[in-house]
Amino acid sequence: MASTPETEDQKPKHRPIIRIGLLLIAHSFLFSVVCCTAGIVALLLLPVLSKKTYVSENALMPGSASPMITDQDVSGANRFMNELTSLKLKSQRAGIEIPRLIALHMANLGGEVSYHKFQNHPNKFHPLHFFTSPDTEANHVNKTCESHATNTVGIIRAPRGDGKEAIVLVTPYNPVNLSQNEALSLGIAYSAFSLLTQVSWLAKDIIWLAADSRYGQYNSVAAWLKDYHTPSFGDFGKLHGDGCHKSSDVPESKLDMIIETEVSDTLRRAGTMAAALVIKVANPGDEGEQDALNIYAEASNGQMPNLDLINVVSYLAVHGQGLHVQVEKVVSLLDSKWLKFIGEVFETVGKIARSLNPQWKFGIPVKEYVEGSATLVSSLYNQALGVPTGSHGAFRDYQVDAITMEISPKISYTSKNRQTQFLVRGGRLIEGVTRSVNNLLEKFHQSFFLYLLTSSNKFVSVGVYMIAFLLLVAPLPVLAASLYSDANQSNLESEKNKPLKSWRWLYPTKTVFLIHLWGAIVSLLPYFIYQIPDSQPTSRLLIWASLSLFLLTVLGSFSGSRSVQWTLLKSVTVSAAFIGLCLMSVINFATAELGALLLVPVCLMVKPWRVAGKIHSALNLVLVIIGFPGAAFFVVKSAFGFQNGSSLVEFWYWVESLWAWNSATYIYICMVHLPCWVLCIYILLHPC
Amino acid sequence: MEKSTAKKHPWFWFWSSAVASIALRLVLIIYFPNTLNFSSRPEVSTPITSLRRLAEGYWLKRSSMSPYAGSMYHGSPLLLSILGPLTIDRSEGQSHLLCGLAFVIADFITAILIRAIGQRLQVANIQSLKSLGAGRLSKISENFPSGDIASLVYLWNPLTIITCLGYSTSPIENLMIVLSLYGACTRLVPLAAFGWVIASHLSLYPVILVIPLVLLIGSGLDTPPRKLFLQQTHGEDYKKTTNGSLHLINFSWRPVVLFFLWASAWAFYVLVLCAISLKEYSGLGEMFKRTYGFILSVEDLSPNIGVLWYFFAEVFDFFRDFFLIVFHINILFMVLPLAIRLHHRPCFLAFVYIAISSILKSYPSVGDSALYLGLLGLFVNALADMQFSFFLFSGYLGTLLLSPVMHNLWIWRGTGNANFYFATAMAYACFQIILVVESVSSMLNHDRALKQGATAVAKKEEHEKILKNLENPRSGVTWEEYKSMRFTFQVSQMPLLVLTMNDLM
Question: Which is an annotated Pfam family here (chain A) (predicted)?
Answer without folding.
Answer: Gaa1
